[in-house]
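Hey team,

Filing this mostly as a record. A colleague (T.K.) asked me to run one chain through the structure pipeline before their review meeting, and I want the input and output archived in the tracker in case anyone asks later how it was produced. No errors, nothing strange. Just documentation.

Input sequence:
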Amino acid sequence: MKTFVFAAALSLAIGLMAPWGTAGAAQKAPDAQLQLSDCVKCHPKVVHQNQEAGGKHRTEVTCLDCHDAGHPPATPVDKMIPKCSKCHEGEPHFEVKNCLDCHRNPHTPLKITFPKNRKVKPVCKTCHAEQVKEVNQNPSAHAKVDCSFCHFKHGYIPSCLKCHKPHRKGQTFKDCVSCHRVHQPLNVAYGPNVPNKNCGACHGKIRKLLESGHTKHAKLHCVFCHKKKHGYIPACQDCHGVPHPKRLIKNFKGCLACHVDPHNLTK
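Output structure:
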C-alpha cells in the first residue's frame, strides 16, 4: 500500500513539472543587443579619440554603423572591422590601396601621416591635381622631390626659410611667397605692393641708385615699372609717350642716350 501511494505521488509530481520544463525550452532567452552607450564601457580610448577628431566618422556615422556585424566572441574580430570601401567609393582617391598607410587611425581619419620611404605624389594627385600639375610642369628643385618632402604631414605648410636662406635680414615666409609661387618658384611674379627692400636684397646697387636720385623715379617702387613678373623691362614710352619732336629723337638711338639710366635720370 505504501509503495502504491509513493508511486502515485511521484507520477503526479512529474506530471506537474513537465509543462514548466517544456515552456522553458520554448522561451529561450534572446541574444543581448549592443547599444551605442555600451561601446565606451570597453573602448573609452577609441570613443574619446573619435569624439575629439573623428570628422565625419563622428558626425555622420556611429560606432554601430561601421561595426554592424556583431561582436566577439560570437563574431570573429576580422569580421567586425569593415573595409573603407564599404562607404568610400566613386572617387579617384578612394581607389588608392592601403588606406591605413596614411589614415593610420580610422577613428581619427583626418590625422594623416605619410609613410616613410614611399612616394606619395600619385596619391596626392587624386585630390590635389592642380597643384601636382603645376609643380610637374614648372622645372625646379621642387619638382624633383616628393610632396611629402615639404608636406610631411597632411595640411602642413612649411616656411621657405626651413630650406632656403633668406635674401635679406628679417625676411619672412610672407615675403617669400609675395614673389615666389611655391609650386613654380622660378617663375617670380608679384603684386604692386612689394617694397623696394625686397628687390634690393638681390639688386642692392640698383635700389641704392634709384633711391638716391632727385627725379620722380626715386619716389616709385621698383614694381611700379617692373610690373608683375621678374625680369620685365618696360619701355619709357609706356609712361612718357613720345615727348620730343621726331626730328630731335631721330638722331639718337634711344631715350638713354641722353637720360643715361632710368634708375638715376640725367635731365
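Quick notes for T.K.: Residues 2-26 form the longest helix (25 residues). Residues 4-10, 12-18 have pLDDT under 50 and may be disordered.
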